[in-house]
Every structure is written in C-alpha cells, then in structure tokens.
Design goal:
The complex is a heterodimer.
Chain A lengths: L4 H28 L11 H10 L1 H36 L1 H16 L2 H12 L3 H24 L4 H9 L4 H38 L5 H10 L3 H32 L5
Chain B lengths: L1 E10 L6 E11 L4 E5 L6 H9 L6 E6 L2 E2 L11 E3 L11 H12 L4 H14 L15 H14 L4 E5 L7 H18 L2 E6 L2 H7 L2 E5 L6 E5 L14 H19 L1
Parallel strand pairs in B: 3-8, 3-9, 6-7, 7-8
Antiparallel strand pairs in B: 1-2, 1-4, 4-5, 9-10
Helix pairs in contact in B: 2-3, 2-4, 6-7
Classes of the chains: A mainly alpha, B alpha/beta.
Membrane topology (chain A): Multi-pass membrane protein
Main location (chain A): membrane
Keywords (chain A): Cell membrane, Membrane, Transmembrane, Transmembrane helix, Transport
C-alpha cells in the first residue's frame, strides 16, 4: 500500500498537473515572444517576480487583512447557518417562512447593495464581513437543513420505542446522518468566503488582497494584480482542503471510510 | 403479560378510511413465544406498531403487565421492538449500537451495561465483533446484533417483526436454530411475525393466524414439546401440523 502511494498520486493528479504545466509553458512563451502586451497578460515568471517583490506588503498587510475578514465571516456563517438550519428543521413553519427568503437573498446582486453596506457599516471590517456572510452562510444553512430533513422515519420509530425524546433522536440519529450534507455545504461556503471578501474589498476599503489587486489593475500593473489573485486562489484552496480534512477525520472516526 | 381485546385500526382520515383490521383479540402469558402469521397487508406490522406505542388504535384495549395504558405513547419505552430492517447505525460499532438503548435511559452505570452486552455478545455467538462496524458483518450477524440490541433494551416483551425475512434460506435456517437454542435461557416473552410456517411451528408455543379486515385472530396451538431440536422439521408430527396450519390459512383467505 505504502509503496504504491506515489504511483496512485501520479495517477490521480498527473493529468491535471500536466495540463497546468503545459498551459503555463504556452502562456510564458506567448508572453516572452511579445505577442500580447504585458499589461494585458503578464508572463507567469513576471507574476512570480511580483509576488517576491511585493512580499512584504502582500504577506504583511493585505493577506492578514483578507484572512481576518474571511475567517470572521466564515465563523459567523457557520454558527448562524447551523443554528438557522437546525431551527428550521425543528419548527417547520419557520422553514416554510424562511426558505424562499433565503433563496431570494442569494439572487440579490451584492455589488448593487454595496453603497448600502458602506452606509451601514462604513469602511470597516464589518462591511466586508457582511458581504462574506451573505455569500457564505447560504450553503451552510441549506447543507444543514437538507441533511437533517433526510428521511429518518425508521430510525426515529426505533428510538421512540426505546423511550427517546425528540432531542435525543436529533442527537443520536439526525445529526450524524446530516453530517455528510453539512460538510458539503461547509466546503462550498469556505470557497465562497474568499470570493465574498474580495468583492467586499472592491466595494470600498484600504487594505486586503482584493483591494490590492484592484488598485494594481487600475495602475496597469497586471503582474502585481495577478500575484494577489494567485494568493487569493491559494487561500481558497487551503480553506477548502482544511474543511475536507476535518470532514475526513470526523467521518473516519465514525467508520464511514473503513 | 399482554392482553389485547377487540382492537381495530384503519388507515387514512375522515370518510376515506380503509380498515386494516378489527375485532382483534389475543392474550400472551409471561415467557411464551407467540408467532403471528398471515398474508402480506393483513396488518401484522401495524399491530406491532400499536403494541409498541407508535400508533394509536381506533378501538380496543391493550393491557400491558396488568395495567391498561391510556394512550399508545404511554407504552413507548416499555416494549422492545425490532423492525424488519436491522436499522443498525452504520457509524457506530457493534458495542456502541448495542449501548444505544442504555444511552437513552441511563438507568445504571455504563460499566454495568457494557458488561451485560459483553456477556450477551458471547451468548449470541458474536464474540470478537465488539469493535466492528455493521457494514463489516454478514447479513446473519447484523441480524443477530439487532436482536441483541432489542434484548439489551431491557424489556420483558420483545416484538420481532420478521427478523429473518430478508436473509437467504441457508442463513435463515441457521438463525432459526440459533434462536431456538438461545430462547430457552433468555427468559423473555416474544411476539414474532413471520411468513414462514415452518419457522412459526419450530419456534412458537402458540400461533395466531391473522386474516385482516374483519377477520380478527385465530389461535392455533403449535404445542410441540420443548426442548425442541431443529431436526423436528423432518418428523411426521411436524409435517401434519404444518399441513393443518397451511390449510387453515388458505381457508381464511378464501372466505
């Protein structure tokens, strides 16, 4: 098993890596040959150089600022999303009242609401957190609610005959059965958080990777803009992987992957 | 142990109610093994759900341990019910699955519950599976774990709804032998639903034939002497009883 690991890794990620490398090579060649002006499409090497040059500013100021917005928004989304999902499951009138509104909240174009957020929260952390929250809490609510709404009648009846009350049924059967769906929502939410923070910073702010990329784009410094975008994308991937790892640990403990 | 008189139940609401059964009476003594046989759809599982307290009957009385329960829900937690599927929780080990009834009541220290389950696992021929997950076990073993969990619920009356119904014929045979041997030392009262007439004859003290709609219940004394051995299957006395039972079942269906 252990000796076969590198080979299976290669089989898994080989094609994607190859395609990525090929794309980068073509991109680099096109940029070097001067077929496209650098302010339209900077070479990957130039992006790397910009990343190194601006590392102080990027890693010292803008990444921490974005990270703070992302993590605050994510934590709020998870807590509120879970509570709302559970409440909707327990009180069906609440679900009937809220479900349509939740969907409407996702169809509102956030950019259009930006002046409102700025008026409400000013140019503070909270105007960005609000955007993160609005994009990221939806998958958590839906994941939790749908997971809990799975048909558990047979289990419910069994536990009732053991003398269980509704809270015990929720804890012993409802929650464990909802976990896979909940984690699917959580993984989506983690990725949406980074997107939300970027939009939030675009709307108004003085720091953060989204703000930095917008400013650099305005100055036609495309390489630096790309450097920030690369960091944002890495941040999203890392968050996703962290949630996926957590899911694997928790579900493994429960024998799902044995 | 349990006395049921003139029980009736209908599905649906208002004027469109379809009666499932009516005028149903039975009486079960402590320590008896009673089978309920009848065609599909005659309401056997519904009867069990009513006894367990999951459904409220339209009419009739149920007296459990000498006390009549005012509502069905009052009986929840006092009768152990094992539905047709094993319903083992896939994310729990065998031990944790069997501890589930204890977790809901917590009427004694955990160590005592664990010790009792360990003893039962041994008696059920399940030693060594304590830490296994249900999906690692064979169908027959899962079913035995489910029976064990039902026993571990600690009630004197067990309702087993076709516990071996989903198993292949060979596994089913071996589990019938297993239950026959186990039954003597278990000291429980069992109500057992089955489609299998041989199974009913082999295991039970008395058999109730259920005919559905207005037919009520018909008692059939199986009364083969105990202790029984599974080779009973091949004796002429057994074959005669089986024939008689089958005839009765068809008679009821025609009418």
């Amino acid at each position: 098993m252990r000796t076969a690991a590198p080979r299976s890794l290669l089989q898994h990620y080989g094609p994607a890596s190859l395609l990525a490398l090929l794309t980068l090579a073509v991109w680099e060649t096109v940029a070097r040959l001067g077929l496209v002006p650098p302010f339209i499409l900077p070479a990957p090497s130039a992006v790397c150089k910009a990343l190194l040059e601006e590392r102080r500013l990027l890693f010292g100021v803008h990444l921490p600022a974005t990270l703070l917005e992302v993590l605050t928004g994510f934590a709020l989304s998870v807590v509120c999303g879970c509570l709302l999902g559970i409440a909707m499951h327990l009180f069906s009138p609440l679900a009937k009242a809220l479900y349509p509104l939740l969907i409407i909240s996702q169809t509102v174009p956030l950019i259009a609401l930006s002046p409102l957020f700025i008026m409400w929260f000013g140019y503070t952390l909270w105007s960005k957190v609000a955007v993160v929250f609005l994009t990221a809490f939806f998958p958590v609510v839906i994941g939790t609610y749908d997971g809990l709404s799975k048909n558990t009648d047979a289990y419910r009846e069994l536990l009732l005959t053991y003398g269980a009350n509704r809270w015990q049924i929720l804890g012993k059967v409802g929650v464990p059965l909802a976990l896979p769906s909940f984690f699917s929502g959580l993984k989506l939410s983690a990725v949406y958080c980074v997107i939300g923070a970027t939009i939030g910073e675009w709307l108004g702010g003085s720091q953060g990777l989204g703000y930095f990329s917008r400013r650099m784009a305005g100055n036609l410094q495309s390489a630096k803009m790309f450097a920030a975008v690369v960091l944002l994308s890495v941040l999203g991937i890392l968050l996703f992987l962290a949630v996926a790892a957590l899911e694997k640990i928790i579900l493994k403990k429960r024998g799902r992957y044995s | 142990m349990i006395n049921i008189s003139n029980l009736s139940y209908a599905f649906g609401t208002g004027s469109s109610r379809t009666p499932v059964f009516s005028g149903l009476s039975m009486n079960v003594q402590r320590g008896e093994f009673i089978s309920v046989v009848g065609g599909s759809g005659c309401g056997k599982s519904t009867l069990f759900k009513i006894i367990a307290g999951l459904l409220e009957p339209d009419n009739g009385r149920i007296t459990l341990n000498g006390a009549e329960s005012a509502t069905a829900a009052k009986r929840l937690g006092s009768v152990a019910y094992m539905p047709q599927q094993d319903l083992l929780l896939p994310w729990r080990t065998v031990m944790d699955n069997c501890l589930l009834p204890w977790e809901l009541k917590r009427s004694r220290p955990k160590a005592a519950a664990v010790a009792e389950i360990r003893t039962l696992l041994q008696r059920f021929g399940l030693e060594g599976t304590e830490g296994a997950y249900p999906q690692e076990l064979s169908g027959g073993m899962r079913q035995r774990v489910a029976v064990l969990r039902t026993v571990a619920a600690g009630n004197d009356l067990l309702l087993l709804d076709e516990p071996f119904g989903a198993l292949d014929a060979i596994t089913k045979r071996s589990l019938q032998r297993w239950l026959l041997e186990l039954w003597a030392e278990l000291d429980k009262t069992v109500l057992f639903i089955t489609h299998d007439l041989e199974e009913a004859l082999l295991l039970s003290d008395r058999i109730y034939l259920m005919t559905g709609s207005g037919g009520g219940m018909q008692e059939f004394p199986a009364g083969l002497p105990r202790p029984r051995h599974h080779s009973l299957n091949y004796q002429p006395q057994f074959a005669a009883l089986r024939q008689e039972l089958e005839l009765k079942l068809y008679e009821n269906r025609r009418s």
